[in-house]
Amino acid sequence: MNAKWSENLGVPGEFLAGAQRRAAQFQQRAKTTGCDLAAIRRFVKSKNYEIGDDPELFREIVAAFVCVLKDYYAQDVKVAGILKRRIEVTGPGYRGELLDLFYRCVFEGLDLAPEGEALSRPR
Prior knowledge:
Elements (H helix, E strand, L loop, with lengths): L1 H8 L2 H6 L1 H12 L6 H10 L8 H19 L2 E5 L5 E6 L2 E4 H10 L16
Antiparallel strand pairs: 1-2, 2-3
Helix pairs in contact: 1-5, 3-5
């Protein structure tokens, strides 16, 4: 799943550059006035958790998640890696790949506390 998701995102730098635009498209598609984790979860659930087949839809959902991470949880989201480019989320006490965190939050129900407190808890 992670390989297909990475392929669906496309070039990491280009994806991040268009994240705001795609998040706005997600809001239109989901018929919401704002993005939050609960809205993303509801939308994914309404799609019966089948979001990997449409790359544009997938990019919109993940872009909305990126905006939530940046705006509500003060996480840095950036491109990392020399040979294998990937999108990484960093914050106080947390560092990990975007798609792993996306899966944990949207599919497994990990709740994020303000300032990333839940992100920094030990595994």
